[in-house]
Amino acid sequence: MSQLYVPANDPIVLEVLSAYDFPATLMGAVRYGQGHINDTFCVICQPQEGDAVRYILQGLSSAAFPHPEELMENFIGITSYLREKVIAQGGDPLRETLSLVNTRDGKPFYTDSNGKVWRLTPFIENTDCFQSATPELFEASARAFGRFQYMLQGYPAETLHETIVNFHNTEDRFNKFLNALMVDKHDRAKDVQDEVHFVLDRKADCSVALQALRDGVLPLRVTHNDTKLNNILIDRDTHEGICVIDLDTTMPGLSINDFGDSIRFGANHSREDEKDLSKVNFDIELYEAYTRGFIQGANGGLTENELKYLPWGARLMTLECGIRFLTDYLDGDHYFRIHYPEQNLDRCRTQFKLVRDMEEQWDAMAAVIEKYAK
Fold first, then answer.
1. How far is CA 279 from CA 85, 106, 261, 274, in A?
2. 3-state secondary structure of 169
């Protein structure tokens, strides 16, 4: 094992690799991907004949996920359920959902000598993971996330653990903002009064989706909660989204939030920290492309009220994200990594500009939903 290639000859990675039986000669592991939360490696094995066999090895961040066993319980339940659905529909479960490789002693994950949880999954070959979208890719990702909702519509969402408590609880985000504003530990509130009043003026909005859930208007669903393009594997031959990945934040939630987070991320052409707000614009055509794909992928699995509330998902996820950036700025930039002093403030302003654009195009957004919900 000591002759394997492992970054910096990391003894923990070597320990984890030794916990698994690999079907071919193990060559080593290299850091992989652009994620900032978990430790991710591509593990490479070479059989005597043929192409290399690859796996993805991930060490779960204890800072982000303080209860990794609960996270893995969610992961196992969801992927097992999806595998049965894929097989029933004549699909390929090795390509259309993630699956776990058991350790030598038959366990679905390994806990290292420092208490960190690791999992090993087969590498899904002949796919790409993109960081930026063309309209065609954006729509393909929408079909994949819509299908994720369709496939999991029968899963008992209430049985899932909240891996990050109150993650998309917009009321709680608003209250945390109020607390940061009241404490104002870095004396920054006086310089961001426009942004502060923007949030205060939209207090009622923060309760729209949650009240609809409480009233039974919107159903509780299994939701991914990080529906960016780079969490879809795109098949190189069909150019369709074939597998939803990064299931760590999959929890009970609202389908409109998954839809909305994609719109927040993808239906504009600016950087998240763009200083020139004239360059930050909500793109109704990209919104339409994503809506078309999402509804198509959901295949009739969304209720009439869920369809009606989809624009609220876009507006609220964007507002919530802006509130989080502003809260972190007031708190002293402890949560989001920054590269210059006012980056969180710039991030906040881009989100609020998108919210304004959505408010101005509200009727057009509703018309798009009506067009494809028929």
1. 43, 53, 20, 8
2. coil
Q: Whole-prediction pTM value?
A: 0.92
> Which pLDDT does position 134 carry in this prediction?
87
Locate 255 and state its tokens: 């389908």
Contacts of 241 (CB under 8 A, 6+ apart): 140, 141, 143, 144, 145, 147, 232, 233, 234, 235
For the chain, the residue count is 374
Q: How many CA atoms lie within 13 A of 144 on its CB side?
A: 28
Interatomic CA distance for residues 369 and 17, integer angstroms: 48
Provide the token pair at 292: 């078309």
Cα–Cα distance measured from residue 257 to residue 309, given in angstroms and rounded to the nearest whole number: 10
**What distances in angstroms separate CA 72 from CA 168, 265, 345, one per listed residue?**
20, 27, 35
Q: What is the largest CA-CA distance in the chain?
A: 67
Q: To 5 degrees, how large is the angle CA 50–CA 54–CA 56? A: 175
Highest mean pLDDT among 34-43, 129-138, 240-249: 240-249
